[in-house]
Amino acid sequence: MIVSGSASQSFAAALADTTGRDLAAVEFERFPDGELKASVPDFDAHEAVVVASTVSADAHVECLQLQDAAREAGAGEVTTVLPYMGYARQDETFGAGEPVSARAVARAVSTGTDRVLTVNPHERSVCDFFDVPAVAVDAAGRLAEPLPADLADPLFLSPDEGAIDLAAAVREAYGRGATDHFAKDRDYDTGKVAVEPGDAAVEGRDVVLVDDIVATGSTMSESIACLHDRGGDRVFVTCVHPLLAASARTRLARAGVAAVHGTDTVERPVSSVSAAPAVAEHL
Ligand code: R5P
């Protein structure tokens, strides 16, 4: 039985289709004081698969409620799928008194589940923060699907070295092209991002930028500007988690992006491909 959080309904439906499991008729309520209640009707299946991207504080609470409700509804075993794990980037401290937020949320989730699957966390090591077995599912290759078949001498490029494996996965799934990476520097006081070009020539080529997350769009818009300055042709932005906070989509459009494609780990208008089949392989 698939039990969906309110922010992950398309992902959960795709997972139900892929695996042939039923979707529970979850109900969501909000009380006048703002508190949430997510309820799961009784069901017969032994296993519940709770699917909840923790994209907000409310979504975190909902995930905990759904895990608890699934047991109340009759599940003997609970698997939690976090298509997008919120707070995963806060995985270390930089000073006394700071929380390791990724660890705090992982511990909370662990109290109500038997195992966790999460899609392309920023660092795979966040899986170690859970007190139950946790697996990082790689769905990056699926980002090749919505790309046009006629890319000219394509270059699959990550904005920093840390995301080069994602660029390589998309290139491999696409079937041809080269990979390279930029070097990125972010000023954490101003939020400004600067990128340094890599070795590959880009003139006249179509470039596919690949990253795990697009949040404010600073990284990608700087990368697009750099590529256009250097004579790149069309620039496509792909990411696993299209958070697209604030004016990110507008920033990408103003930078001249050819198209933006993300997966449904975060459900946005640009979520043109589902990561559910990659998760299904681990269920
Ligand atoms: C960080 O290293 C991540 O991989 C992304 O590059 C980052 O989260 C993107 O953030 P923004 O869109 O705000 O530049």
Characterize this entry briefly.
The chain is α/β, with parallel strands linked by helices and 283 residues long.
Considering the chains and any ligands shown, give keywords for the structure.
binds ribose-5-phosphate; 283 residues; 5-stranded parallel β-sheet; alpha/beta; 7 helices; Rossmann fold
Q: How would you describe what is shown here?
A:
The chain has 283 residues and is α/β, with parallel strands linked by helices. It folds into two domains: 2-138, Rossmann fold, CATH 3.40.50; 141-264, Rossmann fold (3-Layer(aba) Sandwich), CATH 3.40.50. The protein is 26% helix and 25% strand. Strands 9-8-12-13-14-15 form a six-stranded parallel sheet. A five-stranded parallel sheet has the order 1-4-5-6-7, sandwiched between helices. Helix 5 (218-229) runs parallel beside helix 6. The longest helix is centred in the N-terminal third of the chain and has 16 residues, at 57-72. It starts with a strand and ends with a helix. Ribose-5-phosphate binds next to strand 12 and helix 5.
Helix fraction, binned, reads 25-40%
* Termini separation: 12 Å
Helix/sheet category: alpha/beta
**What's the CATH C level of the largest domain?**
Alpha Beta
What is the C-alpha radius of gyration, as a whole number of Å? 20 Å
Strand order of the largest sheet: 9-8-12-13-14-15
Mean pLDDT: 96
Task: Give the helix/strand layout.
Layout: E1 2-4, H1 9-19, E2 27-30, E3 36-39, E4 47-51, H2 57-72, E5 77-82, H3 101-110, E6 115-119, E7 134-137, E8 155-158, H4 164-174, E9 178-181, E10 183-186, E11 193-196, E12 207-214, H5 218-229, E13 235-242, H6 248-255, E14 259-263, E15 271-273, H7 276-280
Parallel strand pairs: 1-4, 4-5, 5-6, 6-7, 8-9, 8-12, 12-13, 13-14, 14-15
Antiparallel strand pairs: 2-3, 10-11
The structure holds ribose-5-phosphate (R5P).
